[in-house]
Amino acid sequence: MKKIALTFIALTAGVFSFAQIEGKWKTIDDETGKAKSIVEITKKSDGKYYGKIVQLLAKPSHNTCIDCKGDRNGKPLIGLEIIRGLEKKGDEFTGGTIVNPKGGKEYKCTIKKDGDKLNVRGYVGFSLIGRTQTWHKVEG
Prior knowledge:
Blueprint: H1 2-18, E1 23-28, E2 35-43, E3 49-56, E4 81-89, E5 92-100, E6 105-114, E7 117-123, E8 130-138
Antiparallel strand pairs: 1-2, 1-8, 2-3, 3-4, 4-5, 5-6, 6-7, 7-8
């Protein structure tokens, strides 16, 4: 009976962790193919997912978000919350926003997990009008 219970617990934990996006992810520039930063995604007490830059892998032209709007304007890139308010709906995370610190523009955001990769889509209006970056899981 213990083996059955342990197997059930292990399987249940596996199902719940399958589509989780929490953790550190290496961002890859979809235009150059080069690694840009490490973003850490966490789930906050409101049940939504947020992501902030924790490390820069390429030297930016500015160390702050000079073109960002609102509370992000002029903030250092390290620690900058670029993803806000994503909710898990089925096999994707959606309903939030992502900001491009390079130009300061904010987009609607949808993330789908594919193994140890995230397909991060930023778009305006409809999801068809946008672009997708593939981010890679960072272990540790």
